[in-house]
Amino acid sequence: MIIAIDGPAAAGKGTLARRIAAALGLPYLDTGMLYRAVGRLVLEAGGDPADPVAATAAAKALRAADFARGDLRDAAASKAASQVASIPEVRAALLAFQRQFGNENGAVLDGRDIGTIIFPEADVKLFVTASLEARAGRRHAELCAKGDEVSLEAVREDLAARDEADARRAAAPLVAAADAILFDTTEMDADAAFARALALIEARVQ
């Protein structure tokens, strides 16, 4: 079974996807970490994540260990991820990796273009969203818990900029697949979102 979970940053799709994968006994892949890892590799090499040549080279050299590292959630990695994700050659380089991961044993994958580009024939597609204010509050709390000193307004501005970049990019813009289930988590906590999503999935695949 392939379950595609797409949506903007901090909508809760990562937490949701991990719990669904565990409940259904499926492998899980956070595809956003692939782009964060590519961006981080470019930065470490002294390059510009917006440079197609440098970013594509990093994407082609990506190893599993690169997206398992612990420094891919900071602001620099987030910005770099958004930059490399707008480059068609980077997305093409990572396409085969994502499809192979899902095709081996089935999977729950979360990202921006799983249901539209990576697995358009996925068994179930959820498009997870939430208001910008709710998403900013969640991400701010997450960063503060890690000891990062960042203001709520800075987090909100960063998410708004990422939303715009995701929507406007020519390569796989963030849109809900025509057959995706729209899933708004603004008023839900993690447990409520998980219970509702699992019920929707089970109803769809019966």
TrEMBL record:
The keyword Nucleotide-binding applies. Residues 3-201 form the Cytidylate kinase domain. GO terms for molecular function: kinase activity. Keywords: ATP-binding, Cytoplasm, Kinase, Nucleotide-binding, Transferase. The keyword Cell membrane does not apply. CDD domains: CMPK (cd02020). Its EC number is 2.7.4.25. ATP binds at residues 7-15. It is found in: Cytoplasm. It catalyses: CMP + ATP = CDP + ADP; dCMP + ATP = dCDP + ADP. InterPro entries: Cytidylate_kin, Cytidylate_kinase_dom, P-loop_NTPase. Its main location: cytoplasm. Belongs to the cytidylate kinase family. Type 1 subfamily. This is Cytidylate kinase. It comes from Acidocella aquatica.
